[in-house]
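Quick start: read one record
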Amino acid sequence: MNTTFLFISGPEIMVVMLIVVMVFGADKIPEIARGLGKGMRQVKDATNDIKKEIKESSEKNGIDTDVTKSINKEINSVKDNIDDLTGPIKRNF
């Protein structure tokens, strides 16, 4: 099975990883990954805050929740796309 990520194959990803290690050094890689993780957490928290605010606002103003369901669907779609993008970056603990 040949998987591609942004039209880059496995060997090309390995070359990019080698270049990253050479440029930043092996000791900086965990810091970079940690920074990416914090950034993704902020995006996720912001998405959850937006969803919460939309829900509270719609309930307060008596707006039909079908509208918010479509917005939530779009937000979840964006979240899924972000999760697909960060899938190879996540670490299993």
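The first helix runs from residue 10 to 24.
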